[in-house]
């Protein structure tokens, strides 16, 4: 998800790793997703080598050099593919990267999002049906409680994943509007220059 997020950010405006890092820290994204602010610079270097972003210029700020990157056409195409891949992934209870995908969905056409989500819901329902079949086969009066709970957890997880994706479809227009607002917000604010980022993030978009 770090790759998709950086490409998304740079699709809004050219910037440097420090600003992206500050945005992640200000949102506390590194606390509840697998996106870690410390991996930004490594990811930027890798994306540059892959030709997905390119160096626009170097800036000197307080005796420190900052590399300002911009996304390439290849990077824009890759962003679309990355977002589609994220939509196809499973959701995990804690720290799931998918929890932050709905505000950055304006990198894909709405009809493509709907098609991916509907396909994923179908797969989740098939998985649930298969799991329930095995539950009926495996669970009986002699089954260990720990095994019973395993099946209950798996089915419960699938239920919530289906529910999350159905909610995404139901509120798709709202999510797309939110995504546009966040894009405008990122475009308007240089987070690397914000002293109290908590106050900025607390303001209504």
TrEMBL record:
Domain Transcription regulator PadR N-terminal: from-to ranges? 6-81
Q: Which SUPFAM superfamilies does UniProt cross-reference here? A: Winged helix' DNA-binding domain
> What is the superkingdom listed in this entry's lineage?
Bacteria
Signal peptide as annotated in the record:
none
InterPro entries registered for this protein in UniProt? Tscrpt_reg_PadR_N, WH-like_DNA-bd_sf, WH_DNA-bd_sf
Record-given protein name = PadR family transcriptional regulator
């Amino acid at each position: 998800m770090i790759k998709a997020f950086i490409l998304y950010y740079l699709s809004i405006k050219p910037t440097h790793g420090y600003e992206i890092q500050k945005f992640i820290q200000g949102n506390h994204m590194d606390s509840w997703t697998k996106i870690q602010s410390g991996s930004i610079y490594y990811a930027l270097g890798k994306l540059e080598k892959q030709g997905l972003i390119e160096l626009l210029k170097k800036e000197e700020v307080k005796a420190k050099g900052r590399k300002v990157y911009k996304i390439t056409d290849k990077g824009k195409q890759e962003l679309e593919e990355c977002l589609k891949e994220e939509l196809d992934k499973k959701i995990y209870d804690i720290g799931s990267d998918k929890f932050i995908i709905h505000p950055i969905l304006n990198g894909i056409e709405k009809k493509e999002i709907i098609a991916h989500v509907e396909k994923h819901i179908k797969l989740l329902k098939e998985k649930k049906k298969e799991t329930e079949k095995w539950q009926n086969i495996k669970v009986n009066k002699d089954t260990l409680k720990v095994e019973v709970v395993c099946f209950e957890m798996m089915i419960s997880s699938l239920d919530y994943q289906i529910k999350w994706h159905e909610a995404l479809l139901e509120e798709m227009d709202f999510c797309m509007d939110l995504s546009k607002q966040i894009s405008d917000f990122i475009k308007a604010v240089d987070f690397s220059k914000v002293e109290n980022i908590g106050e900025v993030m607390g303001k209504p978009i």
